Predict the structure.
Amino acid sequence: MYPRGASRAERRRRDPTRAYHDRVAGIYDGIYEGDPYWRLWRDLVWRRARRALPPPPAPVLDAGGGTGHFGLRLARAGWRVTISDLSPKMCEVARAKAAELPPSRRPEVAVADVQDLAPFADRSFEAALAIGDVISFCADPLGALRSLRRVLRPGGVLVATVDGAYGQATHFLRAGDVPALERFLRDGRTEFLAKREEERFPTRAFTPEALRALLGEAGFAVETLAAQPALPLREHREVLADTKAAQRLLAIELRIGAREALLGGAAHLLCIARAHGSP
């Protein structure tokens, strides 16, 4: 991906993950806020995360927090929040939004790759978020989880979402590409299909078993895995456009999402895990 001998700074500049997110930073919020499926998806995350987090004003890291959707929401609710993202442009948007909050509620914003949270000292936070499939988008998912483990205090809570392996099969079936599906199902590796080829980057989807194993290797004990969502709501946006129906479906998801039988086919998985005693 990078020229031989490229410096670390040059590799960061050429990083396709960063390039994509820099380019879409200005329109990112509109992509998700205008879609009833993603509104429900975010509501699910918020309800599940809020239940799991220590009470405010505990310090929370929103890693890969992008334009700050969850971090700012936590800050408004009283948590002491730091938002980090590898994209400087995403961080610019997050800072501008944070500036609208009262100084006492204003989160810190820092440019940092989740795989290298160097700006933050060991055991700085009581909780961390890695929402929006941050771990799936990493070249080194295990390294990213170990990085998060390092900055969490013993017993600290991680709330993260990843791509679900079997739930991604729909993409390959729609394309009629069975050989690609076979390759994908071996290890969950594929590519983020940005429109610009230079912005495409490798991604990884996880089965529930693989995600549990990875979290354990990184020093976390899994407390909850939930389908995000459990029902095929992405194909039924017209139902979600009805506000009352969407609220009823949200309640259903909160009730059934952690059932083991529903995890395998989910497009995304949400995990709540607790850091072991030492990094």
